[in-house]
Design goal:
single chain; about 130 residues; mainly beta; Metal Binding Protein, Guanine Nucleotide Exchange Factor, Chain A; seven-stranded mixed β-sheet; 10 strands; binds zinc ion
């Protein structure tokens, strides 16, 4: 597997060689506000299979909860990925930044208890009130 991704202004580029552990639509308030959308489609990827290939110096960090850092392109504002200090083996990549077909599809909705009241989930994927359990 080799997937390419980039931010809107193309300053930041990344590659995913996998494995992709999960593909999830997250409705938590952090994802909603940071992405400015009803939810964020997130790929949970092995940190060893994720690499920033351009623009590392353009990334700014926002600590959205203790020990969880969201990384943004400082030019275009795109949220590229998140990493969690207590889980160094994974990164959480924003699927909207992919330039390639990942060959996988969202598997569930998480943090549905916090979803935007104006958004209705119309697919039949499993829904979890908070974080994924399984
Ligand atoms: Zn950018
Ligand atoms: Zn979230």
């Amino acid at each position: 597997m080799l997937l390419h991704g980039s931010c809107r202004c193309q300053a930041v580029k990344f590659e995913i060689t996998g494995p992709i552990h999960r593909f999830t639509n997250c409705h938590c308030p952090d994802c909603r506000k940071i992405n400015g959308a009803a939810f964020s489609s997130n790929l949970v990827v092995a940190a060893a299979g994720f690499k920033i290939t351009a623009g590392e110096e353009m990334l700014a960090d926002y600590e959205s909860s203790p020990g969880k850092f969201r990384r943004f392109c400082q030019t275009c504002g795109a949220h590229v990925y998140a990493h969690i200090n207590s889980r160094p083996e994974i990164v959480i990549v924003r699927a909207g930044l992919l330039d390639d077909e990942p060959g996988v599809r969202p598997q569930n909705h998480i943090w549905v208890s916090h979803k935007a009241p104006w958004f209705e989930i119309t697919d039949s994927l499993p829904q979890f009130p908070e974080a994924f359990k399984g």
